[in-house]
Here is the input.
Amino acid sequence: MKMSLMSSGSLRTLPAAGPARWLFSFDYDGTLRGGDETPPVSREFFELMSAWREEFGVRWGINTGRSINYLMEEYNAIAPFAPDFAVTCERYIHTAAPGARLLPDLRHNALCLDEHEKIFRRYHEKLEHLFTRLQEEFSSCRWNRAPGDPHSIEAETPGVLELFMPYIHRLLAECPGLSAQRTGPYLRFCHASFNKGTSLRRIADAWGISTERILIMGDGHNDLDAFRLFPRALQACPANSHPEILAYAEKHGVYISSRPEHRAVLDVLVSLVRPVLQNPAH
Here is the structure.
């Protein structure tokens, strides 16, 4: 079985205390995870998620560009319980029944793999031509040729990746249905119908949670799909977000925390979310 369809590890979710009524989606690196912190995810966060499950019917998850193995290898070592869902590589969905491990959404993930294989075959020649050209100009960058993710780039820095973007935009204009997911120094080509936003939509629909009861928090370009798909959701970003994300947030009324990373998550939960949860109208 391919990596993206595998179980996510041994941690179990907390038992449900009534139906799911709220859905919280957090980016991992640069948002929920503190880069130089020990532990990288604060204990206060887990305490809130545990309490709010019972009090408000909150379900929460990680929405990340990491692969499932790369995410859970670290997360399992520092967390007391599993999230209720994880979206990995911006597109593969893993969810859990109460008290169970996170398990892959086999139907969705298989469809996702199939559609990506089709679009990579359709645009193989164009993608290979672009990679050859970029490799000549940026020889120090890493080029991912993994079977499940064959067209990904790791630049030396986010600034170097910025130099790629004119080439990327020209290619996407020539390739309907193809998109590029970008975060930090990483970029991967993807099918345009599968991203953090569409994955979150599938989860919300399955649990019967309306847009107004969704929280989305992230700091990078690959979070924009979710922000744009759910304009009426609660939305927030940390102070360390990419300048283009901060500009989007200012224009669209997204809450910008004055704090970075997991400190911003706690700020958002206490300052923005708690008053909404405690409002009887909700």
Q: What stands out?
A: Residues 106-122 form the longest helix (17 residues). The CA atoms of residues 32 and 120 lie 32 Å apart. The longest strand covers residues 58-63. Confidence is low (pLDDT under 50) at residues 1-7.
